Inverse folding.
């Protein structure tokens, strides 16, 4: 929209600096002709607050064998890719002791993607999916902290809050190696798959469920972004790391 570009240029001309969640956003803003100093600080987050709300998380090997999808059900989050993956795993009798579950805070699943909601409900009726609707934070965290993998296939995430919440509760995420996602998990190949490749996503999911990363590796995204406000303060007052 035209008004958005005008707003962006107003921000660029009037701000003494712009804080960013990831380094790849620097190149994107420079390509968009932003001139303001750019500071990569991270995404504001508080892992301690998540853990206080959620309570103690179980060790992974004691958790329910569950893979969850917690992104919005809209086109940019690729719900059809997720459902393709679930159907593939079920059709080929992989991970037969696992459940595949969708979490949403909406009162009913909703989407801007044609047929995505109807398909999800049909899969639920067929016993392929479990859909949790109208979840509060406490309800969602109770599911998240008792799951083995959190799956993400979004096309526009840089640093995802679903990743950070999962990280804070010791749940490994599987993400597309796209945009800032590799950076967000510190280039840990065990938590990445080739974007748009169903075959690679399935292969990586099987491997991640069987051999999850150490707890300290899973915790790295939460720990890093929980220090974002401190980095913002330092960068604002020292001017270092401006790009």
């Amino acid at each position: 929209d035209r008004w958005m570009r005008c707003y962006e240029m107003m921000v660029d001309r009037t701000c003494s600096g712009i804080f960013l969640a990831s380094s790849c956003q620097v190149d994107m803003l420079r390509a968009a002709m932003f001139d303001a100093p750019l500071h990569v600080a991270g995404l504001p987050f508080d892992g301690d607050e998540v853990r206080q709300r959620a309570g103690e998380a179980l060790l992974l090997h004691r958790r329910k064998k569950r893979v969850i999808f917690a992104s919005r059900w809209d086109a940019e989050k690729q719900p059809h890719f997720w459902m393709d993956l679930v159907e593939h795993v079920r059709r080929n009798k992989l991970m037969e002791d696992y459940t595949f579950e969708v979490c949403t805070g909406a009162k009913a699943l909703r989407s801007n993607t044609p047929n995505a909601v109807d398909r999800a409900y049909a899969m639920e009726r067929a016993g392929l999916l479990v859909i949790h609707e109208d979840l509060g934070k406490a309800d969602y965290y109770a599911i998240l902290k008792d799951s083995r993998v959190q799956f993400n296939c979004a096309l526009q995430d840089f640093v995802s809050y679903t990743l950070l919440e999962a990280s804070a509760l010791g749940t490994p995420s599987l993400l597309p190696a796209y945009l800032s996602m590799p950076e967000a998990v510190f280039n840990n190949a065990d938590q990445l798959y080739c974007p748009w490749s169903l075959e690679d996503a399935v292969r990586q999911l099987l491997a991640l469920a069987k051999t999850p990363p150490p707890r300290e590796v899973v915790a790295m995204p939460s720990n890093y972004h929980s220090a974002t406000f401190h980095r913002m303060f330092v960068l604002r007052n020292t001017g270092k790391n401006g790009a």
